[in-house]
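Tokens help. Our protein:
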Amino acid sequence: MRLCSACLLGVKCRWDGESKPNPQVIALSDSEQLIPVCAEQLGGLDTPRVPQEIQGMSGEKVLDGKCLVLNKDGTDVTREFISGAQKVLKLAKEKNIKEAIMKQKSPSCGCGKTYDGTFTGTLIDGDGVTTALLKRNGIKVISEDDF
């Protein structure tokens, strides 16, 4: 059993109200239980929603209070991101989950790369907020690109 970004399984929960179905992940769900999660929705954000990005740093820095997650309109959504990440972690602990497959580049789920906060499509090294929290708690996180 693993956690999985819900959008990879075809759930329309992304910021734009769409999904990003991944054929390999969907095929895996035929043989293994994948628990779909969307930390942004769990944190109380609507779908669709204004795009959000971590401001120039990583999810770890967000968790440490050293940077913010802002949406493109400038609204601070850091609290919602942390809340959603905590809810995903709680579920992982309740289900004794040791691994998660998360959506690459997302400010929540990004694994290794996220956008830089300028809303220009520029990527930087770092994890999203939820991925950073899962890793801090010993849960292995891979992206759909590494699957």
Summary: The chain has a mean pLDDT of 97. The chain has one domain: 2-143.
